[in-house]
Sequence to fold (276 residues):
Amino acid sequence: MLRQRTLQAAVQASGIGLHSGAEVQLTLCPAPPDHGIVFRRVDLKPVVAIPARAEHVSDTHFATTLVVDGVCLATVEHLLAAFASLGIDNALVEVDGPEVPIMDGSAAPLVDLILQAGIAEQSGPKQLLRLLREVRVEEDGKWASLLPFDGFKMSFTIDFDHPVIREFPSQANVDFSANSFVPEICQARTFGFLEEVERLRAQGLCLGGGFDNAVVLDDRQILNDEGLRSPEEFVNHKLLDALGDLCLLGYAIVGEFRAFRSGHTQIGRASCRERV
Fold:
């Protein structure tokens, strides 16, 4: 029997918020069986708990944002992907701001943080969600689908009209049944376009974004001195985001996920439909 997992001990880290640019303190704590992943905004009085559940998704522009009673927490997907990749079912996450820190733009520092805390197996059986039928969401030529499969695997295809991105692999396929932890996925950084970053900053957003936590492109080239971490980094990051968003189902998935050009919006809708 597969058993639930939590952290062995509490562990802390700090980083900047992608949009605010302000420093955020993050604390990961153990939690009992059947607790799930729950965030707490400890900067507020009283403290507000925000369960990592699809029904609490409020915004999906550029990141996944959760809201409970009007209180938001943004950019949760990378931490959720780190939990999912290590099989963590239960954790209490304390954050002293409106965003989970962006770290280096990937899930790798968050995976390291969890490993620093240690992983503890619990007495309760892991809660699984087995797909019995296809659940599919389509919108403007983008789609995301969950299908029956005896295990858990994911495939993602990107299609960007950009000369640099088109030079690199556009499809990623991972069978997590064989290996739940895939370093290449966890290390893939978010990416964006210089023109888009400048526009967002003019709106008071993406103030913490830069070359330290994203792959940045102009219309001709990658601007980061170090380039990509792997040829598949663009598509792998999309798969990383999808892994984190699927964690909002609240269960370990027994099934297959496929996506074409999709983002947080389509995946969030597919998750909400499956929970219904």
User: Anything to note?
Assistant: The two ends are 26 Å apart (CA to CA). The first strand starts at residue 3 and ends at 7.
